[in-house]
Write a structure and sequence with these properties.
The relative contact order is 0.14. The chain is of the alpha/beta class. The chain is about 30% helix and about 10% strand. The protein is globular and about 55 Å long. The structure holds iron/sulfur cluster (2 copies). One iron/sulfur cluster binds near residues 29, 30, 33 and 71.
């Protein structure tokens, strides 16, 4: 082999899961939505046949799970058909929903189609505060109804609460609701600061004291509820000393497909400059997973700079998040600044240090939104 010839692409294990962002449409307008600031319009979405082809190719590649997400995946009228195809292919299907479009008929249809699991997201435990975050009056009440419907359908129920500076003190009540509903799992997930979350960081980032409080509450609940309810806990990186293994490592476990068919290693990868992500409309999933330059770019450890390259955690956290490295330093190939060993860690600390005492208004997630807007904008019915 020529000395300057690049090494052949590393063989990859198959993806564990396919994350299908069926649509960016959503009746809610959460200011921390992980969707990009530029939202795709309905007319640009993949059609039913294209989504089925993605699942067929994913199953052939070895994927075991499919996550239907969005936006609000229930805004797609063909969701039951997609669930049915996933079941036929033997894929474990998970619906990630805000619940506001769920009713007795639609849940019966989804159960009949073969859905395996539903994850229901909440903005808060208090109706008014939750509706304020969602930008939709009546949303919280609908979510409570959705939780009851899921429970009575016999499907496993996971509740997801998104934590930020305006609701961190209410985590004990969120856990109590999950217990009362008999949920098998609850996610207490602090906002992750990408997409709209990054745009709204000053309005959402909790204080160190708030984070410590939620951690204590979760740790105590894990002991108390052991064997009855699983509690997943996700913290914000701004007070961390080590980063998270974002997506389980770049292009190692999951594949995200956007509403228009772009295949990416994570939800926020489109924010990175210089990447041309392939489309499932003209390239096979297997080819993308095994050989697409964007998937190979940060897979494994060869790409890592110091201090990651010689660190014994490099196959634990995989150097953290590429999108966060880019957002903070302008270079996606740097060590995630969430790591205290990163030369850029001070940038992360400065954000926490400069967090405003008074939270500014939210910028709601809307097509074309640019300026802050206060208060819910519409009623749910
Ligand atoms: S985070 Fe909120 S706005 Fe974004 S898709 Fe979920 S429910 Fe809709
Ligand atoms: S130096 Fe790199 S591999 Fe080591 S803990 Fe920090 S981010 Fe992880």
């Amino acid at each position: 082999m020529n000395a300057i010839e690049p090494p052949p692409p590393r063989a990859a294990e198959p993806p564990l899961g396919l994350i299908l962002e069926l649509t960016h449409r959503c009746p809610l307008q959460c200011p921390y939505c992980s969707n990009p600031l530029e939202l795709a319009r309905a007319s640009a979405e993949l059609d039913t046949a294209a989504w089925c082809a993605v699942m067929e190719q994913g199953a052939a590649l070895g994927a075991l799970q499919v996550h239907f997400t969005g936006g609000e995946p229930m805004a797609r009228k063909d969701l039951p058909a997609l669930v049915r195809r996933a079941a036929e292919l033997g894929l474990y299907s998970n619906l990630i929903t805000s619940g506001v479009l769920l009713d007795p008929v639609s849940i019966a249809v989804l159960v009949e189609a073969g859905i395996d699991h539903i994850q229901l997201s909440f903005q808060d435990i208090e109706a008014e505060a939750g509706d304020d975050v969602a930008g939709l009056r009546g949303a919280h009440a609908r979510k409570l109804q959705a939780a009851e419907l899921i429970k009575s359908s016999g499907l496993p129920l996971t509740l997801n609460f998104v934590i930020q500076r305006r609701n961190a003190e209410r985590v004990p009540r969120m856990l109590a609701l999950a217990e009362e509903l008999g949920a098998g799992r609850i996610e207490i997930a602090h906002v992750q600061y990408y997409g709209w979350g990054l745009r709204n960081r000053a309005a959402l980032l909790p204080s160190r004291a708030q984070l410590d409080f939620t951690t204590e509450v979760v740790e105590a609940a894990r002991v108390r509820l052991k064997g009855r309810m699983v509690i997943d806990y996700v913290v914000p990186d701004y007070y961390a000393r080590r980063p998270k293994a974002c997506m389980g490592g770049w292009a190692r476990r999951e594949m995200v497909i956007t509403p228009t068919g772009k295949a990416m290693p994570c939800h926020a990868a489109d924010s990175l400059p210089g990447f041309a992500f392939a489309s499932v409309t003209d390239t096979s999933l297997a080819e993308i997973w095994r050989a697409d330059p964007a998937f190979l770019r940060f897979r494994g450890t060869d790409w890592m700079p110091e201090p990651c390259q010689s660190c014994d955690r490099r196959e634990i956290d995989w150097g953290g998040c590429r999108c966060q490295a880019f957002a903070m330093t302008g270079d996606p190939a740097r060590t995630d600044p969430a790591c205290a060993l990163s030369p850029d860690h001070a940038l992360m600390q400065a954000v926490a240090f400069e967090r405003p005492e008074i939270a500014p208004p939210y910028v709601y997630r809307r097509i074309g939104a640019a300026e802050p807007a206060e208060a819910p904008v519409a009623a749910a019915d």
